[in-house]
């Protein structure tokens, strides 16, 4: 039952990401920008064929392979070999997966990822809602594993 809730959460993230991307594409011209939070954040319609800072540009097969491997590891962990993640950590993993799914939908459907959030106060790549969930999920997972789940790092893991 819990696994179903994680999948539902990931699907909701991917759906919300797709809705925001749809609204961006239908309301902004390519490379058009609109102030959202003046001096902080603006909306901009950008097509990204790579990862952050356009790294690995055009390597769609690599992103698909990483996503498939991540999917396989999640299924293995949930059904075959639990690694001792807490409930909170599993929600973080679901957030990461949901963000990855949102971007993978774009890559498969469009051949690129739609990005729309651009920081005004610093030089940072344009990003999307899926990227927010991936980044925040990873950060929260790492902090929780390092500071709150000391048992995760022990050699004796529960394999039941």
**Structure classification:** alpha+beta
Strand content: 5-15%
Describe the strand arrangement of the main beta sheet, using strand numbers.
Answer: 1-2-3
Contiguous helical run count: 4
Number of domains: 1
Largest sheet: 3 strands, antiparallel
Distance between the termini: 17 Å
Mean pLDDT figure: 90
> Strand tally, please?
3
Shape: globular
Gyration radius, rounded: 17 Å
User: Which residue ranges are poorly predicted, with pLDDT under 50 across at least 5 consecutive positions?
Assistant: none
**Helix-strand string:** HEEHHEH
Helix share, percent = 55-70%
Explain what the structure shows.
The mean pLDDT is 90. This protein has four helices and three strands, in the order H-E-E-H-H-E-H. The longest helix has 26 residues, at 2-27. A three-stranded antiparallel beta sheet has the order 1-2-3. 56% of the residues lie in helices and 12% in strands. A hairpin with a 3-residue loop joins strand 1 (33-37) and strand 2. With 160 residues, it is of the alpha+beta class.
Name its key features.
160 residues; alpha+beta
Any chance you could write out the topology, listing elements then pairs?
Blueprint: H1 2-27, E1 33-37, E2 41-48, H2 60-79, H3 87-110, E3 113-119, H4 129-147
Antiparallel strand pairs: 1-2, 2-3
Brief overview:
The chain has helices spanning 2-27, 60-79, 87-110, 129-147; strands spanning 33-37, 41-48, 113-119. The protein is of the alpha+beta class and 160 residues long.
